Amino acid sequence: MNITSQFLETVQDIVLQAGKKIAKEREIFESKKIQHKSSFDLVSYVDIETEKFLINELTKLNSSIGFIAEESHQYHPKEWNWIIDPLDGTTNFTRQLPAYAISVALAHHKDIKYGWVYNIPANELFFAENNNGAYLNANKISVAQNSKLADCLIATGFSVSKFDKVDIHLNVVKEIIQNSLGIRRMGAAAVDLCYVACGRFDAFFEWYLNPWDVAAGSLIAQEAGAIVSDFSCGKNFLYGKEILTAQPLIYQDILHIIQKYIQHDI
Q: In 3D, which of 187, 262, 201 has the Cα closest to residue 232?
């Protein structure tokens, strides 16, 4: 498929339009319209309507591209597919916490070729093209260069529906806290990945994420110089339900800690 600069600009405009709609809805949002996908997993009419808008506009752009989308449960893979999270960080959105984003990736089979993450409260648009770098509001970005874990800030997230890894996760967190600048939990994986990309975090790890949570952000992080893998140092992070993203100087440190506690659990 021929991807032109005009095509990419149009996708960017669609993402920004969707972000403006979400920002406007935040001003008039009604908490009583929150729904629950599971006990603690929230979805709002904003998620649903934003996904409809994105699917509709991206289909107009090219109807031959398939969709892997969160809220409509679309999973009809074609050769090329949009992987969409219309509102990553729904709980943050409902509580007016300033970390929620739109995540849109374009994949050829399982290879992510383009990624957009729009961090709406900060008005930050992250973009990456495979083998062509990562950008924040059109400025090229790169990962941090801290060589010691003691100088690093690490991010993580916790599943709201799967709890079998909680003890392992907390042990990893405990060791990282004791040997770094600390841990942050933003509540939006796409934002976490982009923050690694631009050097705000040195690493991010989490279990039980879905393709739409990580597709765009993982490409952005990789193109900014991060190493992205599953917890076995492999590449099954898109569908494998585990992801580690870190700047190269401390990737092995974080991987070692995670693997140590995974092994203890076997």
A: 262
Residue 132 has phi, psi (to 5 degrees) of -140, 20
User: What is the per-residue pLDDT across 45-61, written as a single tens digit (0 to 9) for each?
Assistant: 888 899 999 999 999 99
**What pairing do the DSSP bridges indicate for beta strands 153-156 and 203-207?**
parallel
Radius of gyration of the chain (CA): 18
Query: β-strand 153-156 against 182-184: which pairing, if any?
Result: parallel
Q: For strand 111-119 and strand 101-108, is the pairing parallel, antiparallel, or unpaired? A: antiparallel
125 φ, ψ to 5°?
A: -105, 115
Whole-angstrom Cα distance, residue 237 to residue 55? 24
pLDDT tens, position by position, 119-165:
999 999 999 999 999 999 999 999 999 999 999 999 999 998 899 99
- The structure tokens 């001003």 sit at 27
Question: Structure pTM?
Answer: 0.94
Q: How far is Cα 29 from Cα 194, in angstroms, rounded to an integer?
A: 26
Q: At 261, is the secondary structure helix, strand, or coil?
A: helix
Domains of the chain: 5-140 (3.30.540.10), 149-265 (3.40.190.80)
The token pair at 265 is 């659990």
